[in-house]
DNA sequence: CCGCATCCTAAAGGATACTG
DNA sequence: CAGTATCCTTTAGGATGCGG
């Protein structure tokens, strides 16, 4: 391992089992984290509005996802002590940076979907 | 939903439950997919070499991950019919594009790790 | 060396019901 | 409205053993 490439140096430790950034990546890029952060990129959401936006997520998973992201400092939780309660979720500056990168990833993947579908058809074809 | 923002248009459907790109995103950005693609960014790997590189992954999960990525057209599988068998995995052009974006994400997250750790300490502190 | 197949355990995730 | 708690089902994932 020469490690003269600057990008290599930064990325190297993520391959180590015990690397703590793996856990953050799972929160951020996992099934629900990526969608929650992407949704919050267009502004603050209340709990149930966010739940409607991220179609298919259960109440439990949304709460769990938001807690993890709040703990990591990517999402801010603002509670107005009114009745009925009003809780707003929004991105922190770090959350915004990561969310923006995730949007780029989503955009990239969506742009390649025709090729992906073609590849899948080819793959499924050759072994049927 | 006005949908006049160009980035919004591209991203919108990922929030729909039935969107097929969600599945691709899970393969790509999931716990193991992100590491496999990132590892392959520095060239072709044989199965067991890749397994050593992605520390902690089991044989089963690596095989499963590589199959999914191969089916999606992101990873190419080259078999040399020698004995013992020699199988090399490498990125397709689309795989390279996505891998590069993932490396940027990893780099970004790793750069924010000090802040993330601080946020976690604060969070855990206030509720103990 | 590559990599299925099987079995089994642990964790993710959904549905429902209930509280401030 | 914004959750928490519980139960239950499904899936992820590790270990092991065999075959090409």
Automatic annotation (TrEMBL), chains A, B:
Keyword Cell wall biogenesis/degradation belongs to the record: no
Keywords for this protein: DNA-binding, Transcription, Transcription regulation
Domain named HTH hxlR-type: which ranges? Answer: 19-117
Q: In its keyword annotation, does this UniProt entry include DNA-binding?
A: yes
Which Gene3D superfamilies does the protein's record reference?
A: Winged helix-like DNA-binding domain superfamily/Winged helix DNA-binding domain
PROSITE patterns to which the protein is assigned, alphabetical: HTH_HXLR (PS51118)
Record GO terms (molecular function): DNA binding
Q: What protein is this chain from?
A: HxlR family transcriptional regulator
Q: Can you name the source organism? A: Phytohabitans rumicis
């Amino acid at each position: 391992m020469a490690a003269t490439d600057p990008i290599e140096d930064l990325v190297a430790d993520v391959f180590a089992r015990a690397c703590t950034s793996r856990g953050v990546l799972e929160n951020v890029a996992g099934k629900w984290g990526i969608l929650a952060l992407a949704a919050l990129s267009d502004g603050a959401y209340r709990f149930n509005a966010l739940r409607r936006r991220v179609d298919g997520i259960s109440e439990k998973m949304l709460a769990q996802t938001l807690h993890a992201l709040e703990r990591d400092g990517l999402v801010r939780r603002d509670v107005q002590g009114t009745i009925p309660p009003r809780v707003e979720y929004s991105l922190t500056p770090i959350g915004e940076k990561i969310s923006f990168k995730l949007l780029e990833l989503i955009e990239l993947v969506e742009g390649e979907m025709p090729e992906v579908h073609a590849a899948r058809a080819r793959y499924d074809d050759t072994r049927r």
